[in-house]
Specification:
By secondary structure, this protein is α+β, with helices and mostly antiparallel strands. The chain has 2 domains: about 90 residues; about 200 residues, Vanillyl-alcohol Oxidase, Chain A, domain 3 (3-Layer(aba) Sandwich), CATH 3.40.462. The protein contains 12 helices and 13 strands. Helix 3 packs across helix 6, helix 3 crosses helix 7 and helix 4 packs across helix 8. The longest helix has 20 residues. It is globular.
């Protein structure tokens, strides 16, 4: 496009602008649909004794538990007991491979609320879901965690949004694109027509799931904690500091989805570390040696300390002040959070169907 402008060739500039518009079409269309009509997000609705997660692509029954009490807090434990309690909790949740687990931790108006969603990987009957939920309740009780079936869905800082005003704006953009085509701006008019029409179709297909996100939305961008081997005291001090920070903040929702990684991931980490070591010694590259050492630390934690490898999806919805504080706190723990330009992927990753 710049070459077309410099040479004064209008056809070259038009073709370049059209190619550029098509390359960025998926991102631009999703952003335009969210800006005009709202963010499409899964809906959690009560149905019988369980809940249903509904999406434009289907729905599934899920079990939901409300954490009512935790007998032993961070301040009541020693570093070694804290590590043992955390490991026992994760091992308890991840023992059933049929489920993916989503923990929703919310604080608003001075009140805490913690909810555990058990999302099956395939459709299960209501009786089967309730039986699995009661089994988790029994397993959590020896750990000092009291839970009971959830009665109403958590608010999640999401409000239903009417898509009619946004749809009208998209129709105006489509009309503007026709005017641009009429005056001869074919590339700009064609791109604007493509963006507005496809965004309108997406918004109409997900009209029952459009929401307004109240606050900033952050997502887990990178996890550096797995490449280190912190001591029990370091993990305890970080947990204690994060516990005190969460108590002092107001107006946030933290959504964490946990899945056990496939067995081959640990072996893949080890093979990747050995491959990097061989390349580092062959070419005398210090950067590759450091990267290989970090990967080998992660593999060592899995094979020798018997720590489970997890697939983690983390999404935070918070006020500006709380989002800034939480972002810095998670960075200290080795979790890098980024601000979502397009919000729907972060919500679908944390609350969607596995």
């Amino acid at each position: 496009m710049i070459l077309g402008l410099l040479t004064g060739s209008r056809p070259l500039a038009e073709v370049s602008a059209l190619i550029l518009g098509l390359v960025y079409a998926p991102i631009a269309i999703a952003a335009l649909a969210e800006l005009c009509c709202g963010v499409p997000a899964p809906r959690l609705e009560k149905r019988g004794e369980t809940f249903v997660i509904s999406t434009p692509f289907g729905s599934r029954r899920v079990a939901a538990l409300e954490i009512r009490d935790v007998r032993h807090g961070v301040l009541d434990l020693t570093p070694i007991r804290h590590y043992g309690a955390c490991k026992a909790l994760l091992d308890t949740l991840l023992v059933n491979p049929e489920f993916s687990y989503t923990l929703i931790y919310e604080k608003s108006s001075g009140a805490f609320r913690a909810v555990l969603l058990m999302v099956p990987r395939r459709e299960l009957s209501e009786a089967r879901l309730l039986s699995a939920a009661l089994e988790v309740v029994k397993q959590l009780r020896p750990l000092g965690v009291e839970a009971r079936p959830l009665q109403e869905p958590p608010p999640l800082s999401l409000k239903p949004k009417r898509g009619a005003p946004g749809a009208f704006l998209l129709l105006l953009l489509a009309a503007l694109s026709i005017a641009l085509l009429w005056v001869g701006a074919y590339a700009l008019g064609g791109i604007l027509a493509l963006y507005s029409v496809v965004a309108l179709i997406l918004a109409c297909s997900a009209r029952r799931h459009l929401h307004h996100v109240e606050g900033e939305l952050l997502y887990l961008k990178a996890n550096e904690s797995m490449f280190t081997e912190p001591s029990y005291e370091e993990m305890y001090s970080r947990s204690r500091w994060l516990f005190e920070l969460l108590n002092s903040l107001e107006g946030y929702v933290i959504i964490v989805r946990l899945d056990r990684a496939p067995a081959y991931v640990g072996r893949l980490l080890e093979r990747r570390a050995f491959s990097l070591y061989e390349r580092a010694t062959a070419f005398d590259k210090l950067s590759l040696m450091v990267k290989a050492d970090r990967l080998l630390n992660a593999a060592d934690r899995h094979f020798h300390r018997r720590e489970a490898l997890l697939e983690v999806t983390l999404t935070v919805i918070a006020t500006r002040r709380a989002a800034k504080a939480l972002r810095r706190a998670f960075e200290v723990a080795g979790l890098s959070l980024g601000k979502a330009f397009i919000r729907s992927p972060a919500l679908w990753g944390a609350l969607g169907l596995p």
